[in-house]
Write a structure and sequence with these properties.
Chain lengths: 288, 238, 343
């Protein structure tokens, strides 16, 4: 019974963290059809931003929830203005350029923070369920992810901004037809996407020892989650996070975390072979 | 007995609840010319794509020279000796006109024969001036001609052309008429078209599509005199 | 392509003979060997991406597979001839399977990128986790993150005690690269190569001409993997150890950078891009002011933004602009007699 509860929490945690990792990439891909291969590095930078400001005496939650997203969002804004803006409509070129950016940020972080592991202790204590110890921070991540998804849904459904965003996702010409400058919309989108990446990186930072190359571990998972999710933003994110999180966690239990990761990636390859347009390309057409 | 080049039996193509091609029975004898006409959205192009293998029909059968080819992929159908020209000019933009046509010839011929065939097609279509130009830099009419060259180079016995006259100048259309007569010497030809002027200049028999189904098949003059067809074209209820 | 393959081969070999003796005056042969190996790796991606239009984010998977195939079979066999052949065949077979799965599933650009990237990551994670002694192939332990050291290196065929190393290894690599280059040139002039270029230009048109584009892309993909595998086998001999790092994303990114910088759609571009950037990295490695990765990243971004065609096409465009009149006349004289030779 206790063991079952532990497994349930672990699976929920795996799904939630996958959704959290992928949210920023999904927003940018859904709105702009741009695959940001520097997404993992944005997360890494978010982690560093949170840890650095926490070390400077800022409350850890303020550092994670406010400072990190803003810092990374601003970095994203600069990147968009300098690089991405010139490459709209050239999918492969944007992938290559953002891959270059990812190397660039790894280099920057190595020069600033050194090639050593930086960490911070989790601000929430663990507790016991029967004979098992549960990491309290996992609950925090599950709650944060749920709140994040609900917030995204609320923004998309109820606000004017969300309406514009939905229009742009359906048809990129829609925004300009409605009189909004696509340039502005893309700029704002990239800001939000980067901020979400930084947010995710900061939230996850206490769990992983941060090194400048940490982003690499995230990008592949985020990448497959978003691509496998397909065109619908929220339902794609949820369905593929649920699928891959479940597969990965189950195999981690049965075998080892490495096998879990491998199983997740193999599941992605098989899924894309069966549904080349992603899950929502087939099942939740036209939904959010 | 006359050989049948193409036949469809009860051909169906549904997209969700929409029936784009509705139980079409179609038959074309070797060496014949047929035009498929009908208003926009009548299902001509969908029918065309089902025949060429670009779409897999949801029901019915397609036969070519008495062989069933339903559900074959486009390259298998083309390999039978079927020449296909799609609606949007589809050429190899980065290559020269010569290379475009040579690649089509090489599919069925040795290198030496492909060279000879390419030269022959080039002179038949009078493409001599542009053989070394990149096709991507040519005008629309010239690109259409290069694509017709690609179709001819394979020496097909069945040719399917989707809107070959679209976007052509009057002069180009004249030469297109000649090219089609040239093709008819060795092949059966099906043309999807809605330029009636052009159809009158080449066609004997036309098949009229309306709402996915075959409305009428007859000589072009009689078809155009038919009241139902006129209504369909003018948008009235049939 | 103005010259015949035979004529071009003579020129290539002549230039190669000059370079093979001239280069060691500038750079030591140990460093030159790795530059040649990377050149071959660059060429392998340049072939499938530049001429086949197949964007592979995981070319390094075949490089790593080649290196591991060599190391594992060299330990088991104790002689280098067969292992070097395995280093070509194993990645080619793997790529044929992977390619068939992707191309028959009609996956294109982004999705191709995802799958190749993900497969590379799977290999990376898997090899990294094989530290325990249960992972053994014959007598070779996979060794996880420690890699596999201590295998038989290149020897004269049939004589395991006569090693090819030092300068001799440099000559061997040079010869291998020249042979691969000439084979690639021949392939691109053959009907197969022309059809591959046709598929790059317009897949649908080529299949409407009757070509089975899926099968042809799979074969080309496997050929690219074979070349990358040979480069991997040579790399194993150069480094005398193989590690999971060969499968890393960073390595994959570098191959792509070489091709972009050198120029896609050329044979020489990826080789020059690979050798010059690898040498630049080597020089940068001797200083600690600026991080290496940062510079590589910056180079990639700047090239995508300002010179997406790469160096070699840019130079040949410049050449054509300065000597344009001469070229035009040549072209005119060929007109009408143009044939495609030796298919």
């Amino acid at each position: 019974m206790d063991f079952g509860f532990v497994i349930l929490v672990e699976i929920l945690y795996a799904v939630a963290s996958l959704a959290l990792i992928s949210a920023g990439l999904a927003v940018v891909f859904g709105m702009m059809k741009v695959i940001n291969l520097a997404h993992g590095e944005f997360m890494m930078l978010g982690g560093y931003a949170a840890i650095t400001s926490a070390n400077m005496g800022v409350n850890i939650f303020i550092a994670m929830l406010i400072i990190a997203p803003i810092v990374v969002g601003l970095i994203g804004l600069i990147v968009e203005r300098l690089v991405i803006r010139h490459l709209y409509g050239r999918l492969v070129d944007t992938m290559l350029a953002t891959w270059g950016l990812s190397l660039f940020f790894i280099g920057c972080a190595t020069m600033i923070f050194g090639n050593t592991t930086t960490g911070i202790s989790t601000p929430i204590p663990g507790f016991a369920v029967g004979d098992y110890q549960i990491n309290g921070y996992n609950f925090f991540i599950i709650i944060v992810s749920v709140v994040l998804i609900l917030a995204m849904l609320a923004v998309l459904k109820t606000t004017r901004l969300g309406l514009i965003a939905r229009g742009t996702m359906q048809n990129p010409d829609m925004a300009s037809a409605l009189g909004y400058s696509p340039d502005r919309i893309y700029m704002a989108t990239f800001f939000v996407g980067s901020a979400l990446s930084g947010f995710a990186g900061a939230i996850l930072a206490p769990l992983v020892g941060l090194v400048p190359t940490s982003g690499g571990a995230f990008i592949a998972k985020a990448f497959i989650t978003v691509i496998a999710g397909g065109p619908a933003l929220i339902s794609g994110l949820l369905s593929s996070s649920a699928l891959f999180g479940f597969v990965g966690q189950v195999f981690s239990f049965v075998a080892s975390p490495v096998i879990g990761d491998v199983a997740m990636l193999i599941a992605a390859v098989i899924l894309l072979r069966l549904l080349p347009q992603g899950v929502t390309g087939r099942f939740f057409k036209g939904k959010l | 007995m006359v050989e049948v080049a193409l036949e469809t039996r009860n051909l169906n193509m549904r997209f969700g609840g929409i029936c784009a091609v509705d139980n079409v029975d179609f038959k074309l004898n070797a060496g014949d010319l047929r035009c498929l006409i009908g208003p926009n959205g009548a299902g001509k192009s969908t029918f065309f794509k089902c025949v060429t293998g670009q779409l897999e029909p949801t029901g019915g059968q397609v036969f070519m020279r008495d062989e069933e080819v339903t559900g074959w992929s486009p390259h298998e159908i083309a390999s039978l000796g079927v020449g296909i020209k799609t609606q949007v000019p589809s050429v190899l933009d980065g290559l020269t006109a010569f290379e475009n046509i040579w690649l089509a010839a090489r599919r069925f011929l040795s290198v030496t024969d492909a060279n000879r065939m390419t030269d022959e097609v080039i002179s038949r279509l009078s493409l001599g001036d542009i053989i070394n130009s990149d096709v991507g830099q040519l005008g629309h009419g010239e690109r259409q001609r290069v694509e017709l060259g690609i179709v001819m180079a394979a020496d097909p016995w069945l040719i399917l052309l989707d809107e070959p006259a679209a976007g052509m100048s009057a002069k180009d259309v004249d030469s297109l008429t000649n090219i089609i007569h040239e093709m008819l010497k060795s092949a059966a030809v099906i043309i999807v078209e809605h330029d009636m002027q052009f159809i009158r200049s080449i066609a004997s028999t036309v098949s009229v599509f309306h709402q996915g189904a075959m409305l009428i098949e007859d000589h072009v003059d009689r078809v155009m005199a038919d009241q139902t067809v006129r209504n369909v074209y003018l948008g009235k209820k049939a | 392509m103005p010259k015949s393959w035979q004529k071009e081969s003579v020129i290539v070999i002549a230039i190669a003979l000059i370079l093979v003796y001239a280069l060691p005056f500038a750079i030591n042969t140990f460093t030159l060997s790795i530059l040649l190996i990377y050149g071959m790796l660059g060429l392998s991606l340049g072939l499938i991406w530049g001429f086949g239009g197949i964007l592979c984010f995981g070319q390094t998977a075949f490089f790593g597979l080649g290196a591991y195939a060599y190391a594992i079979s060299a330990i088991n066999i104790g002689e280098s001839t067969l292992p070097l052949i395995f280093s070509i065949l194993v990645p080619a077979a793997f790529a044929a399977l992977m390619g068939a799965m992707m191309f028959y599933g009609r996956l294109a650009d982004v999705y191709l990128g995802v799958i190749t990237l993900v497969v590379t990551l799977i290999l990376f994670k898997f090899i990294n986790s094989t530290a325990s002694p249960i992972y053994v192939i014959g007598e070779a332990r996979l060794g996880g993150y420690n890699g596999i050291p201590g295998f038989q290196t290149l020897n004269i065929p049939g004589r395991p005690d006569d090693y090819i190393w030092g300068d001799a290894f440099y000559y061997f690599c040079f010869a291998a690269l020249v042979i691969v280059y000439l084979l690639v040139s021949w392939l691109l002039r053959s009907s197969f190569g022309r059809i591959a270029i046709g598929i790059r230009e317009n897949d649908e048109r080529m299949s409407l001409m009757g070509y089975d584009t899926r099968a042809r892309k799979t074969v080309l993909f496997a050929i690219g993997a074979a070349i990358a595998g040979l480069a991997g086998g040579l790399f194993a001999n150069w480094a005398e150890i193989v590690t999971p790092g060969l499968f890393s994303l960073g390595q994959s990114a570098e191959i792509i950078i070489w091709c972009i910088v050198g120029g896609l759609g050329t044979r020489l571009g990826p080789i020059i891009g690979a050798a010059s950037l690898a040498y630049l990295k080597f020089l940068l490695g001797q200083q600690s002011m600026i991080d290496n990765t940062l510079i590589m990243g910056l180079i990639l971004v700047l090239f995508v933004l300002f010179l997406p065609k790469g160096i070699v096409p840019a130079i040949s465009d410049l050449w054509a602009a300065s000597f344009g009149r001469r070229r035009k006349r040549l072209r005119k004289s060929r007109r009408g007699t143009r044939v495609i030779s030796n298919g």
